[in-house]
């Protein structure tokens, strides 16, 4: 039809117009297909884009935009179309189909149209146009936005200079799709308000929330204008985008922390250099998860502030209490950046971690002791080599009970300093009175270490509740008997109770028992006393004749003295 419009002028300039009298008919419009929803109708001054078939009343076709593969574009009501068609498209909706019958005086009149001679459209011909409206816009149009869904809470809106990730479906105004991020299985990632997008999209994205779905309608002069875009977006096309906002951040963002739960007592907070064990759920801003320690049934263990985790997490783990729960939001430049990691975390993704601190410690930590109950009289306290009996409950710092002496018939008995229990517990049991109760916190390097133990996680800080039930003072390692003061001097006459110059086993046993009873000597606790005394006797009975004489005792004393001097040298 454009070619026909162009040839009208040639025919008009070379032909005399003769007007015949008679009544003039108006345009006849048959709206045979009207869409259910019509948000806008064509008005004078609007620009339209439509396809048409032009025929005579006998059905013979004289023109078709369909056959040319290019719809007609023009402005309505300003004389740029034949008058009948100008009137015929007014009030149309996008996707409406109508048949417009144009009488000759509102078409090409008595002149006709076409090449010389003017025989394409003969004079005084009624024209029938079958029109489908594809697009409508006006130079006064603005970007239109309509929110389809929005999360209940929206703490942050898209602003200029933000970096966003979103999915979209792009269609023309008549619903014909031209592009979709979903089909590529990847978000569209870009800065907003910095010229990376068409002007209308830059404007339409402002004010969105993460998780919001919005329709954005962009007029052509704020989209691809007359040029269009390749073969998918025609010239002067209105664009419709359905956008789902996945992510948003600003390059100036720092980590964001939301404290969810803090324990009533917090005597210490994490610092750089501490070793921490924590559980976490990792999600994106739209709530979809990418990782969780709970599913593995194992905490994440790491040093803080030493580069073992991503920068944002290193910072977020500082200042935490044992048992604290917090949400931390990490911008991409403090997480995995533009590249992301593997197939799990896409490039430029904001990460959200819900953290629960199980415990933490420092490699330089000593045990912590808190006495919870102590007898008024405490004349005797436990120390290395003592034989003790104690009650205990052992838990993780989150209160999870690992094991307890109450689970056994008898409370445990051990010798302090004999490497019978973990180092931290051994230290925690020292200096106690019988009946005393205390809480002892044992760091992993004084507990079960990085390897853990049966039922004890790797690098776990242990919480012991202790009660000393019994205490027997001990003797140094390697000794069976010690003097608690000066030994008799000379020793043999004191041992020779019947003064017959020899000491058999029975007499030796009686002598040692007298020393223990009077508190001047002590046998190794926890062992059979008669067995210890017999071993002591055999050690002194050098000739194995069943008795000790002064000479044997003298030789033994000299040997021990010589051995001691040799060790000193």
UniProtKB/TrEMBL annotation:
Source species of the chain: Salmo trutta
Family annotation (Gene3D superfamilies): 3.10.50.40, EF-hand
Catalytic activity: [protein]-peptidylproline (omega=180) = [protein]-peptidylproline (omega=0)
One of the record's GO molecular function terms: peptidyl-prolyl cis-trans isomerase activity
Sequence intervals crossing the membrane: none
Residues annotated as signal peptide: 1-19
GO cellular component: endoplasmic reticulum
EC identifiers of the protein: 5.2.1.8
Annotated EF-hand domain residues: 528-563
Locations listed in the record: Endoplasmic reticulum
Keywords tagged on the record: Calcium, Endoplasmic reticulum, Glycoprotein, Isomerase, Metal-binding, Repeat, Rotamase, Signal
Coiled coil: none
Known function: PPIases accelerate the folding of proteins during protein synthesis.
Domain of life: Eukaryota
Domain PPIase FKBP-type: 45-137, 161-249, 273-361, 385-472
Protein name: peptidylprolyl isomerase
Main localization of the protein described in the UniProt heading: endoplasmic reticulum
InterPro entries on file: EF-hand-dom_pair (IPR011992), EF_hand_dom (IPR002048), FKBP-like_isomerase (IPR051989), PPIase_dom_sf (IPR046357), PPIase_FKBP_dom (IPR001179)
Gene: FKBP10
């Amino acid at each position: 039809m454009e070619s026909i419009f162009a040839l009208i002028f040639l025919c008009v300039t070379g032909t005399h117009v003769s007007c015949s009298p008679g009544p003039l008919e108006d345009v006849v419009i048959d709206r045979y297909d009207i869409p259910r929803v019509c948000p806008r109708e064509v008005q004078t001054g609007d620009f339209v884009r439509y396809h048409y078939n032009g025929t005579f009343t006998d059905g013979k076709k004289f023109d078709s935009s369909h056959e040319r593969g290019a719809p007609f574009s023009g402005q309505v009501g300003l004389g740029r179309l034949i008058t009948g068609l100008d009137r015929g498209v007014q009030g149309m909706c996008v996707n409406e189909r109508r048949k417009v019958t144009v009488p000759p005086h509102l078409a090409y009149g008595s002149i006709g149209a076409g090449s010389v001679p003017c025989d394409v459209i003969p004079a005084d011909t009624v024209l029938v146009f079958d029109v489908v409206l594809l697009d409508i816009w006006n130079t006064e149009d603005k970007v239109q936005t309509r929110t389809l869904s929005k999360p209940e809470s929206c703490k942050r809106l898209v602003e200029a200079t933000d970096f966003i990730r979103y999915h979209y479906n792009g269609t023309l105004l008549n619903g014909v799709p031209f592009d979709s991020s979903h089909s590529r299985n990847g978000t569209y990632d870009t800065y907003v308000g910095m010229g990376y997008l068409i002007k209308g999209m830059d404007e339409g994205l402002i004010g969105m929330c993460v998780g919001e779905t919005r329709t954005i309608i962009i007029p052509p002069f704020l989209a691809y204008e007359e040029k269009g875009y390749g073969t998918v977006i025609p010239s002067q096309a209105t664009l419709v985008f359905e956008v789902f906002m996945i992510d948003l951040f600003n390059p100036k963002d720092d980590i964001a922390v939301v404290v969810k739960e803090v324990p009533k007592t917090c005597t210490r907070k994490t610092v750089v250099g501490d070793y921490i064990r924590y559980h976490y759920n990792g999600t994106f801003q739209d709530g979809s998860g990418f990782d969780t320690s709970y599913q593995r049934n194992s905490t994440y263990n790491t040093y803080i502030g030493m580069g073992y985790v991503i920068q944002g997490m290193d910072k977020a783990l500082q200042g935490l209490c044992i048992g604290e729960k917090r949400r931390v939001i990490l911008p991409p430049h403090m997480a995995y950046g533009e590249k992301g990691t593997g197939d799990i975390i896409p490039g430029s993704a904001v990460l959200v971690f819900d953290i629960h601190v199980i415990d933490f410690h420092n490699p330089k930590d000593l045990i912590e002791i808190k006495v919870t109950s102590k007898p008024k009289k405490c004349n005797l306290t436990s120390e290395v080599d003592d034989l003790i009996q104690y009650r205990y409950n052992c838990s993780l710092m989150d209160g999870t009970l690992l094991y307890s002496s109450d689970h056994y018939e008898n409370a445990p008995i051990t010798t302090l300093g004999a490497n019978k229990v973990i180092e931290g517990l051994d230290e925690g049991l020292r200096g106690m009175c019988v009946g005393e109760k205390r809480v002892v916190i044992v760091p992993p390097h004084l507990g079960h270490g990085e390897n853990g133990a049966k039922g004890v996680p790797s690098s776990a800080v242990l919480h012991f509740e202790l009660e000393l039930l019994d205490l027997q003072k001990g003797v140094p390692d390697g000794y069976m008997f010690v003097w608690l003061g000066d030994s008799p001097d000379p020793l043999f006459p004191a041992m020779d109770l019947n003064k017959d110059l020899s000491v058999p086993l029975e007499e030796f046993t009686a002598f040692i028992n007298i020393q223990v009873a009077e508190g001047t000597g002590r046998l190794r606790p926890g062992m059979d006393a008669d067995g210890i005394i017999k071993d002591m006797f055999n050690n002194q009975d050098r000739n194995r004749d069943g008795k000790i004489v002064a000479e044997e005792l003298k030789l033994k004393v000299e040997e021990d003295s010589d051995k001691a001097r040799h060790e000193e040298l």
